[in-house]
Amino acid sequence: MSNRSKAIFAVTFFMAFIGTVLFLSGMSAGGELEPPGSAFDEQTGKPASTMHSIKDTYDLMMSFPLPTGFVLWDDNPRFAVWDHNTEGDTSDDVVLDTWYNLMWVRDAGISWIGNWNAAVSYCDNLVHGNRTDWRLPTVTDLRKLTLPYPSSTSPALPDGHPFINVQLYWYWSSTEYNSSWAYYMDMKWGFSGLYIDKGYWFNIWPVRDAY
């Protein structure tokens, strides 16, 4: 085949390809292809609503089943609570944050255990809700749980959260700035950009990985 023939063939093929693309695009735009999942309200004859409740949305989004004994929290189904069939007794309750697959001690009022080293040791040795492997949260863990600074609510937690005894004060993180300083979270405003001497006594909020 000559160079001239090859050129003509290439142009013809290209034009045919463009024509096919435009034809298919026109069919889609013209409504020939039914949108997936389309439905109509039988009473009004109009497209049915695709709106879902918050709980339905969270149920659909969850990539893992809830661990045994956990129940979605009605006021904010981002969270699920385990209370070990002891309704009214929150001392051993655990909260699962389904967004980040982190488990938190429900009672956030653990305070004045000691300095940063004591806080790390306390969490490492904690047995709570029949679970071990607790740890002092990193500053990233705390940022995931709290609302962005400056929070419009105090404490700086999502609406409808299931936690109790949340202190409007400082919580230690395990994230170190250096050997003598570590970051903390101001739970009143959701600010975590500062660090301080590890010798201070702050609140403690144990966390663990859910899976």
Structural summary, described in words:
There is one protein chain. The chain is an alpha+beta fold and 211 residues long. It has 2 domains: 1-41; 54-209, no CATH class. It is 24% helix and 16% strand. It contains 4 helices and 8 strands. The strands form 2 sheets. A 5-stranded antiparallel sheet has the order 1-2-3-4-8, with no helix packed on it. The protein has a 3-stranded antiparallel sheet with strand order 5-6-7. The chain is globular, with a radius of gyration of 27 Å. Residues 1-52 have low confidence and may be disordered.
Topology record:
Elements: H1 3-29, H2 54-61, E1 71-72, E2 79-82, E3 94-97, E4 102-105, H3 116-124, H4 139-145, E5 170-176, E6 181-186, E7 195-197, E8 207-209
Antiparallel strand pairs: 1-2, 2-3, 3-4, 4-8, 5-6, 6-7
Strand order of the largest sheet: 1-2-3-4-8
Q: Note the total helix count.
A: 4
- Report how far apart the termini are: 64 Å
Count of DSSP strands:
8
Low-confidence stretches: 1-52
- Whole-number average pLDDT? 79
Largest sheet: 5 strands, antiparallel
> What is the helical fraction, as a range of percent?
10-25%
Counting structural domains, the number is 2
Computed Rg: 27 Å
Structural class: alpha+beta
SSE order in H/E notation? Answer: HHEEEEHHEEEE
Shape: globular
Q: Give the strand content.
A: 15-25%
